[in-house]
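Researcher: Re-running this chain for the archive, since the previous output was lost when a drive failed. Same request as before.
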Amino acid sequence: MKNHYNLAQKGLLDISSLVNNTIRKYNMLTQGDKVVVAVSGGPDSTALLHILNHLREEWNLSLIVTHFNHGLRGNESHRDATFVENLAKLLMLPCRVGKGDIYSFKHQMKLSTEEAARILRYQFLEDTLKMEGAQRIALGHTADDQAEDILMKVLRGSGRLGLCGMPPVRDKIFIRPLIEVSRRQIERFLDQYDLSYVTDSSNRDQRFLRNKIRLDLIPLLERTYNPKLRENLVQLSSILRDEEDWLQGIVAQEFLKILKYHDFAKVILDASRFLDLHRALQLRLIRKAVETVKGDLRAIGFNHILDVLKLASQTHPSKMLNLPHGLIVRRSYEHIIFEKRTKEPVDFLYLVSDLKPVVVKEVNKVISFEVVDYNKDLNIEVDKNTAYLDYSKVHFPLIIRNIRAGDRFRPLGMESFKKIKDFLINCKIPKNMRKSIPLLVAGDQIVWVAGLRLDDGVKLTGDTRKVLKVKIHPPLTHGQLF
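Model: Regenerated structure tokens:
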């Protein structure tokens, strides 16, 4: 494997400067970041790794090379994984290689092969981020990928949100440092320094729409209509993305105006106020409500949004619409209700004998424990999923379980005891969700209704010396590591 470029030569400095400008423009990195670099072994991701490695000293970066072996191309898949491992060794960087059963996951989740592979790949990257304590995941998408993505969405009838293309930064974690670099620039850089990479034979398989667009449609349109097609598509996405940022702010404001109730399983909107709004805003508010309850918009198409709008426009009470992934939408008199179809969990009980994290599989949560000194330097997080208990007032072993008949505790700030059932009703927790709330028990005392309220008897006081920090972590994802 060749890797003998001179970092002082002009070509590398040019492309590194271009990438560095993109990084600064979109605030992709901060000094000292640990970055997970997704490397398939192809030209784009290989160039990304070399460029970030060149910028490593300037940004004081720690790089972790990652590769996900989809196992879909037999020996070629194994070759790619070996190439990435060897490249990481050559650059003296740590490397993690993951592998997943794409076909089993595809059939289990009823997905296309491409979508199943994408989901497992991203889950592996996020798992690596958490395990390594990293702050960013760098992806190798280029300006050409952006143009192809936008054109593919035009052909599929996407709205303006889809035409925004791939964001340079997503969720403050995923970054695309090459998003303003063309594939031609990447190839010229690799050729100039004789840098090795691998070629994915499936990229020429025209059964995939993206490949047909890249190999046939874009060259045809550039020859016949506009040689600057890719550049113009990327410019279109940039314009729409700026406008979309502005529109999202308006949608968020209007959503709060018509919102009557919201918890982690339900959103209720004011029907009359909703129906007074412009149709374009109504469609966006429906998307917002669905995303709020469901967590994403996967499997929700434009026809689903139109069905909800039709339902909302009807005055007949108790009409109901079933959407993908167990989402229900109902029109009930003056309300439009979005909610998950949920099953009440079975009873659970876990003994906590030490500070090791506990996985509560029945409700798909992880609860961690930490003992810290109580002093002025203690950073108390204002977070409903984190509780701080006076360590001297709780004694191991503790118990994590769900609600039982007759359970009582003394909510923080109150002098009298209250039934857990009544407390959850007051918190507007739906009946079918109440058994999903973990309770932390010390002896015969419920000391924390997780995510809602601490018991007054274990609160921090001026006499507190040590603190038991208890935290609920986000739901587990497929293949997540701890």
